[in-house]
């Protein structure tokens, strides 16, 4: 066969020609980028939106896996200045969850990046007053006291790490008990007590009951059981206040300290003494929830026989240890019933911009875990407002018996509240595994893992460098004088980190149950149209003839889903009530009174609720939706143009946030 000489002698491409082509190709790419930068920005945004969808979906799956730990509600907040730099965190029932901008209390942003109110009170960094952080009050998270667990390396204890930690721990912001000068970071309390609408008896009272007198007047009085030591109670109530001649409903969480007394005794107090003597008009009896608070024994030993005790082991990480005697402790309730002790917790999420990703530590053969997003924040980088990023902003156990500020990443052991030892400088391993590149191996005696911040990848390093016995990692436990080595393979951990572009992941949900109000509804309450007239109360502002078939909810629940067990109503000419059962409605319409559910959507001939046949018109209103929202914003601002201009810059920036929302029908204790 004759060979083709032309093909054999054809000259190939020289290296110089190849380099010239590459240079021309790169120049073309750069030209396209300069001409069409918006197109590349769109591609980047699409990639980030996909990551946001993954982030929100992962969080929703985590919540679905443990519906028993869902809180009763997650609510909007506002700060109320008490003086001396102390701010009480209150519920903002009027906040629409879709409104991510400043509330009415913020009027300026100063050059330091702090929000201010009209009196120039410093409310802290502007990021805590807008975006995801407008809704971060967690109400009633928890359940049964967990079983004490432990290993030779980890002390025994009944521990629980809060779902949405880290939590806000500050001498300036938080729950402020009546008569106290400083906030408390958490309220830990037991089951609701039984309300008795009468004066206390002459004989002994039970520990599970309280007594309420004259609820609808300014002489409202509550009597609470006493113990041989001082005790605190948590009160949640809606009360009515005279504000310039107008009746305004207020929603408050109160902490009352009752002095020592005798077992079976009681202590009485007039509610007007701390709800505004002269302006307090009374309260809605149905709104009042009373529960005994657990005693905080942080830094002290548990008593031998008091199940109502806890310690905040790792304050901002949110790990609570309960007195082990509370596990399977049975309380006597009404009618002689017994029930296992539950512990519920109110707290404020520290910052929704601190992202949480939970996973199990991989096997020794894998050693790698990828996070949902890339481009994590690194210490020293510029923030969105031009300031310098100094770390996550909360403390973690430091492995020396105390706590230190977290760097730009933390890995929490969910069971214990400890953190795995991390050195962000990535000290090189002096004895790396054979046939390895030393740059990729960190000294496991100084850091149990490394984080590739640009790619969002965690890599673990075995303390004993022996894959045969699993991954041995260093764990810094709360209060422990030195880290301990644990076999971490398969343990549940929570990665805490922040993303560039101001990533945040926010959870909010409708209330587990709703109380009924006789005026415009506040958080976790509902108003049935016509209630005020049916029971002889003052007319409700904004109520119209169309309200006669509507059930109203607070603005903070707009677009949420609710389930209503029973509704009794009538059509024109009816002599007997009609009933609707198991109604599921989305609150996507509003009027002057707020978002509402209208029974005429189900029965167009309905004319009014029936309050008389059974003593109530509506029974069993429960929230049925949980929302997880992931957000980011690639835009930047500069806070150096005066307080008013700074304020407007933040407002405009907030309007450009990108969002991915994941909503699910999910109720507490069910799948």
Number of helices: 6
Query: In total, how many beta strands?
Result: 46
Q: Strand pairing plus helix content: what structural class?
A: mainly beta
Instruction: Report strand order across the widest sheet.
Output: 8-2-1-6-23-9
As a whole number of angstroms, the C-alpha radius of gyration is 29 Å
Unreliable stretches covering 5 or more consecutive residues:
1-8
Mean pLDDT: 88
Biggest sheet, in brief? Answer: 6 strands, mixed
- Percent range for β-strand residues: 35-45%
Helicity range: 10-25%
Model description:
It is built from six helices and 46 strands. It starts with a helix and ends in a 6-residue tail after the last strand.
Brief summary of the model shown:
With 671 residues, the chain is mostly beta strands. Among the domains are: 12-37; 194-292, no CATH class; 355-399 and 412-500, no CATH class; 511-623, no CATH class. It starts with a helix and ends in a 6-residue tail after the last strand.
